[in-house]
Amino acid sequence: MDMKPKTILIADEQQDIPVLRLALGDAFDVTVSITFNDALHQLETRRFNAILCGLHFDEGRMFDLLNLVKSRQNTKDIPFICINTLNTVLSDAVIRVVEVAANATGTHGFIEFSKWRKELGDDAAFAKLRNYVADLP
To answer: How far is 21 from 34, CA to CA, in rounded Å?
Structure first.
C-alpha cells in the first residue's frame, strides 16, 4: 500500500528555509511560507499534517500564526511546532520563556534546533528532526 508522505508547512525566514529542507529531506511533502499572508493562503488551500514555525517568522509573527491556526476549526488540530533555526543557541532563560509562552498558546512543542545541531552535529540533528516530525500524530 502506498502511503502519502506527511504534508508539512514550514513558516520561517528565507535564510532558514534551506537548512530545514535539507534536514527534512525527501521524507515529507514540504510547502514553504516566508510571510504571514502566504501562510494563511496555504492553510486555506491545503491540508497539512504539521506546521514548523520559526521564532522569527515574518518579523516575529510566530505567535500570530499560532493564534490563527488554533482559532480555526479546520486547522486547530494541526500540530504546531515552534523551532529556533537561528545560528545562535538561545540562553536557557530565553528558551524557558518561549516554551512557556508556546505551551500556553497551544503548540505541540518547541525545538531548539540550533542547539541540537551544535550538540549532535548536523546529521544526527537532521535525523532527530525527521523522526520528531514523523512521530507527530
So the answer is: 13
**Residue 7 cell numbers, joined:** 504534508
Are residues 7 and 47 in contact, defined by beta-carbon separation less than 8 angstroms? yes
DSSP string, the chain: -PPPPPEEEEE--GGGHHHHHHHHTTSSEEEEESSHHHHHHHHHH---SEEEEETTTTTT-HHHHHHHHHHSTTTTTS-EEEE--SSSPPPHHHHHHHHHHHHHTT-SEEE-HHHHHHHH-HHHHHHHHHHHHHT--
- What pTM was computed for the model? 0.90
List pLDDT tens digits, range 3-50: 778 999 999 999 999 999 999 999 999 999 999 999 999 999 999 999
